[in-house]
Amino acid sequence: MKANDPHGNEPVITAGAVLSQARSALILLHGRGGSADDILSLAGELGDTSTAYLAPQAAQHTWYPKSFLAPITQNEPWLSSALAKVNVSVDKVMSAGIALERIAIVGFSQGACLASEFIARHPARFGALVAFTGGLIGPMGSELSHAGRLDGVHILLSSGDPDPHVPWERVRATEKVFTDMGASVITARYQNRPHTILPEEIESARRLINDAFA
Question: How many CA atoms lie within 13 A of 17 on its CB side?
Fold first, then answer.
């Protein structure tokens, strides 16, 4: 493992349609302590037989060591390495001839924070972002806005409230940033929901992704 690239040698697990034959792709980002295999359990529930799924694996099962609310410097170089890992998967999908508009990035918990941060730092006409319990990365009260536009991007921010890791205030702040960038944002709050993904959240994500790819 390179000190400045903790995730560089970790695999990307694939499932679903072969990229060269797929019509769309989902990049799935697992949470802290999870794995690529774990998050791939969502694959069949979010796409169809023409969808390719790519799930990068985090080194030591974590994308970055501290809370997503810690100063960003405290999560480096892990965070930059994680963002680069996502970008490699996006490039791989596009190299197979799949347009950005038919790529969705989906994450849970730490993976949802990583997915949100990636989209904010790489504003482009992606198909969709689904953040199951997550938000933009940085301390409470910090400036979260990013330059660039996300016009046409479908975004679902779905979270429990209260949640032990992700304050609802951060979900709403993330909603504002993405809305200001031009995205079409749906925010769903599940009161007293455990730190998990409910079936109705998966159904909402499936509908959003289908609409994005329509």
Answer: 17
